[in-house]
């Protein structure tokens, strides 16, 4: 994908920039590759730096209100200073590591309603910073994440929407200042028990936390509060676990006991209760203990072999895609961000056309 523009900081006759993404679809932890092509204008130009950033839309709660804005969650300078001669062609290749916690935006070609993400190219010229248009990037699920998502489709859940919430999940080795909530309508068997179920992944190199939240209906077995389930698994283990049975058992426990504690994966404890702004200074990608380094959760079954992603995906691809057809698919990333305030605390910039 390409976007081409003139650098607004210099106006007519200044350099132009093309950003080409060789990998417009990536997975968490994978490389985002491409190149920035800068074309010299009518005069020599001193470029101070060229930087790239991954930007997405995040919801934040302030008091009784809610704010939606753009947040840059990955940033890297791909070039230092240089002099761009008039008419010169300069190519800057790049490869950026996508954070393991990057939210899923697309599953088997179907974009999740409510999600949008882009890469922004920033060029500093003559003391001015030009934050240009952004080109869409899609994040596909890891095989371990897809195993969980497939189970929701197998159980008859229907995808509702997805969003990003600023905050921190208590007890998780979370690096980013937000987490994703993927929301589902329940199947008929549980429609009288829960209004919806929200799924959150917190992934790392060795594994992931899977957090479920059930928005419970009021009634004989409950007062309408929320219940939670939580699993910590390695990526290989996740491929072999029967997630449909895990999720179904958790919901059955809610029906029988009014909470999910029967499986030892949660209950009423709110993993989001200690969220908010703490622990969000900077990106905090380094220096953390990997909770999955020694096999993850004690409930592991020790399986470390089996079919690769192709076999796992093929087994349930049809059902998975069918379960994720949203009421509205966002065709253009600009439409997804329509109405956002470019001058918000989350950063500026306009979303470019494909």
Automatic annotation (TrEMBL):
Record region (Disordered): 258-308, 335-354
InterPro entries recorded: Spore_0_M
Pfam families, sorted: Spo0M (PF07070)
Basic residues bias (residue ranges): 295-304
Biased composition regions of type Gly residues, renumbered to the chain: 276-285
Protein name: Sporulation protein
Biological source species: Streptosporangium pseudovulgare
Upper lineage: Bacteria, Bacillati, Actinomycetota, Actinomycetes, Streptosporangiales
């Amino acid at each position: 994908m390409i976007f081409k523009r003139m650098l607004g900081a210099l106006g007519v006759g200044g350099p132009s920039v093309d950003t080409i993404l060789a990998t417009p679809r990536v997975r968490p932890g994978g490389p985002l590759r491409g190149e920035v092509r800068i074309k010299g204008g009518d005069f020599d130009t001193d470029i101070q730096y060229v930087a790239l950033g991954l930007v997405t839309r995040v919801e934040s709660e302030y008091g009784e209100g809610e704010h939606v804005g753009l947040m840059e969650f990955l940033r890297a300078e791909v070039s230092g200073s240089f002099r761009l001669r008039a008419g010169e062609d300069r190519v800057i290749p790049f490869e950026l590591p996508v954070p393991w916690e990057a939210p899923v935006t697309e599953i088997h070609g179907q974009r999740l309603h409510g999600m949008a993400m882009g890469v922004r190219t920033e060029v500093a010229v003559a003391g001015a910073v030009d934050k240009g248009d952004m080109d869409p990037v899609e994040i596909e699920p890891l095989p371990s994440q897809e195993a969980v998502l497939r189970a929701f489709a197998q159980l008859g859940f229907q995808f509702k929407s997805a969003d990003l919430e600023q905050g921190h999940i208590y007890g998780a080795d979370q690096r980013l200042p937000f987490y994703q909530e993927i929301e589902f309508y329940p199947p008929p068997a549980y429609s009288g028990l829960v209004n919806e179920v929200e799924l959150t992944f917190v992934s790392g190199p060795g594994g992931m936390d899977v957090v479920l939240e059930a928005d419970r209906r009021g009634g004989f077995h409950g007062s309408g509060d929320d219940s939670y389930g939580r699993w910590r698994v390695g990526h290989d283990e996740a491929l072999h676990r029967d997630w449909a049975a895990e999720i179904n058992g958790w919901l059955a426990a809610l029906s029988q006991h009014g909470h999910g504690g029967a499986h030892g994966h949660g209950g009423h404890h709110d993993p989001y209760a200690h969220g908010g702004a703490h622990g969000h200074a900077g990106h905090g990608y380094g220096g953390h203990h990997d909770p999955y380094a020694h096999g993850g959760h004690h409930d592991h079954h020790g399986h470390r072999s089996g079919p690769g992603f192709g076999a796992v995906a093929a087994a349930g691809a049809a059902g998975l895609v069918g379960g994720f057809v949203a009421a509205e698919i966002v065709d253009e990333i600009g439409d997804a961000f329509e109405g956002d305030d470019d001058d918000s605390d989350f950063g500026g910039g306009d979303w470019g056309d494909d």
